[in-house]
Task: structure prediction
Amino acid sequence: MKILTIHSDFIEFEPLSKAIKTAEEVAKEKKRIEECLVVFTSVEDGDDKGVLENTKKEIVSVAEQVKAKKIVIYPFVHLSSKPAKPSAALECLKEMENIPGYEVTRAPFGWYKSFNVKCKGHPLSELSREIRPSDKPAQGVIDERRPAGSESKDRYLILTPDGKEYDLDSYPYQKGEEGFKVLVEKEGKKIGLKTEMQEPEYIKICKKYGIAWEPMSDSGHMRYAPKGALIFDLVADYSRVSVDSLGVSVMQVRGTCMFNLNEPAVKEHAELFGDRLYSLDIDENTYVMRYAACHQQFAMIKDWVISHKQLPFGAFEIADSYRYEQSGETLLCFRLRRFFMPDFHVFCRTMDESKNWFAQIHSRIYYEARSLGRDYEMLVNLSSQKHYDESKQWIVSLLKKEGKPALIHFYPEGKNYYWTLNIEYNIIDNLNRPREIGTVQIDIGNWKRFGITYVDEKGVKQGPIILHSAIIGGIERYMYMVFDTAIKIKKETGMIQIPLWLNPEQVRILPMTDRHIQKAKELADQLEKENIRVGVDDRNETVGKKVMSAKQDWVGYVLVIGDKEMQGNELSVYSREINKDVKMSLPALANEIKDKTNGKPFKKIYEPRELSKRPIID
Result:
């Protein structure tokens, strides 16, 4: 079980809508509890009565230290990567209400809730604990550095660009490494971090663009109104641009999302993902919904006749993928049950060749983050000490490129891993959490599992080394990074902005009166010929209201067309980026937009150009 305790001046919460079908029945009423210890709680798979009792003892211990008489048990599944089933979790949470000597309140289970909490801010006001099953439940086991219930021998160290190694407690952090420290504490030490216990601010951007959960589907499935759909498709197109930039030959493929578990290769590969699989029983067979493009690409490429002369080559598909995340774990644009992964595999002849292409993919992954104004922190996973020893100097060369240290994670020895090394590229988001976006991995085993071979110079069949990568990350996760970056920009400038190439409406033209509408449409026609997305606000509204509406819609550039603009070539243009009005001609505006969107994909606007024809989308 995982808990995060907050000694609070108050907490107030209100259930809004059911997150799962089996949510308990409660009244939709707001509650406020003053002077309390709030216990954000995630019940995990395998938690038993010993864990429950030890958790209650830990809560009492903290309550005694902070002298709290009121306790609030708040279900918070996001603390865990392997939560218990809803029925078991609810039963455990109900039992947690029985803490003698304290006034205990429990927030509703299985609901989306709004809440506000005010932390007191003293040294004991924020504490995290992991209580895991033990042979001696009466004594309790609390280990903040090891996943709950894990008996694995995972090891961590820090590796620097000059090749030095440090244990996690002795590393001398330098100025500018605050994000790396967050990664080490969260991923390496398993220490809970201070977070804002409220709805993430990027959700407001999602709402603005019509990006939301689909309530008539399964949990974790998203829907997109026109603006959101346009952003999604632009990002998908850009994932292809990013892959093509590498210079390796790329085979773009497409296939199904269902695979038969009676096929040995599918079954063996699927077993790696355990209970995260979506499965369907059809006729007499059980099918698994793919969780990446691997199944389809490998099932296809095993039937190809490949010569060493054709290697290396890449295979690419934007694959609709499915993972059975717990309903309470899902997070809009980040953790989903259905998501889209621009999966890129590179098939190589030798380990040296694979490392060469790995390094090029690595550089492109960093380029993509930095082009948004972000940077990555590296978590390097190794399947054995042997692979680390063989690759250490090469890993150091990657760190030197970025001038950054990396957290090295050794998986337990003795298991038959199909991979040797992978890197997870994490941003540190606005809630101070590591969020994996890009990734690349060296795979030495799947060629054998699926029967993928090539013919070498001597006419002998060999198995290729396969690189798995998502250069910009999943489509939705890239959008998450864009929106999280917009929040950072807002904190610095006061203005929400996303990159101009992704802005659903790059320009909006505002005719002052009806007699100016025709001129506005002519200007819009000229901009559209330059591959610029334009809206025309032809509604019967005041200019002031039209200007306010354009700013509220985060339009990149706004033009007001009146009598003066009808006569001359100079326009007054509001630029959202600099939050000022500037004078320029229409060709100058078009050139500025093209310069800022150079190298990025373009799509026409996904809704009527004229605002009078657009429905109001809530």
